[in-house]
Amino acid sequence: MTARSNRTLRRVLERAATSLARRGLTEARLDVEVLLGFVLGVSRASLVARDDEPIDAQSRAVFADLLRRRARRVPVAYLVGSKEFFGRAFRVDARVLVPRPETETLVEQALSWSRGRDGPLDVLDVGTGSGCIGITLVLEQPRLRCVAIDASDGAVDCARANASALGAGERFEAHAVALEAWSAAQSFDLIVSNPPYVEPGDRCDPETSHEPDLALRGASGPFPAIYDALLTCARNGLRPGGALMVEIGAGQAEVVTRRFEQSELFARVECAIDLAGIPRVVIGHAASAGHTEPTSTSFSRGACGRTLRGRRGFRPAGR
Ligand code: GLN
After folding, report:
1. What is the pTM assigned to this prediction?
2. Mean pLDDT by 10 residues, the chain (319 residues)
3. 194 CA distance to ligand 1 centroid (A)?
4. Atom 9 of ligand 1: nearest residue by CA position
């Protein structure tokens, strides 16, 4: 084999994928295609289409550096500086949690809730991170305005940059403040949050060691303290007929649902299941003005009975 053929995109990809796979990365081929496409500024599809072309020395050096970092389990999203969420590219870096596909379940629930309501809607996004939840809601639902808060200055800068890059304009505003220190000047129709819910002893992907601890484990104390803080926030700031929607970790549905019921804030509590069949979003529906009924609880129809069995290839990531 000549030195030249050794440097074709195909050979470089093959060698890189083998080396990452040997280190236990399960999506090695996908990772190297995304990283090399990023280095060369081309899509994965055109990378594969022209894989008999040579790669220049400078690109090879940049790619080698990314591979070394990927081998240390730096998330691909941090290496390329963006992550797709609900069909849009969000800029991400180590200041924010990488948006997860399961969080799209929360967004879908919030959007479907918003479609059942008339007029302008005020939403509070607690712990916004990259802004992926609040910004997506604003872009998908023109009647909606979002106030987003996060305890991290870096996260708020990131969320603001995403809001302006994606055109969320004046309907998304972000403030650097912790939930516990925040007092709302207004009330909200909907409060959404993907709070830090990783518990001590949880097994997480190695990639999470590069993500902000504040976004994964938080500062509110042991689970379920953060959900109690969110319930207090709802008590102070949720309008009659409004809803509180929170993402939860695998295995937390029972505890969080019970907390919601015990709060006596809601006429109805629901739990929605994500694409992997895991109860992922707890929703409390506040009674409309003038209504007082006992709380009823349900799991989203049709979804609750689904199990992981039969969903081949599914591998839950982290919590
Ligand atoms: N599910 C995330 C994980 O994979 C945790 C997200 C969170 O704590 N909000 O670790």
Report:
1. 0.91
2. 74 97 97 97 92 94 98 98 98 98 98 97 98 98 98 98 96 97 91 97 95 95 95 97 98 98 97 97 93 70 33 50
3. 8
4. 196
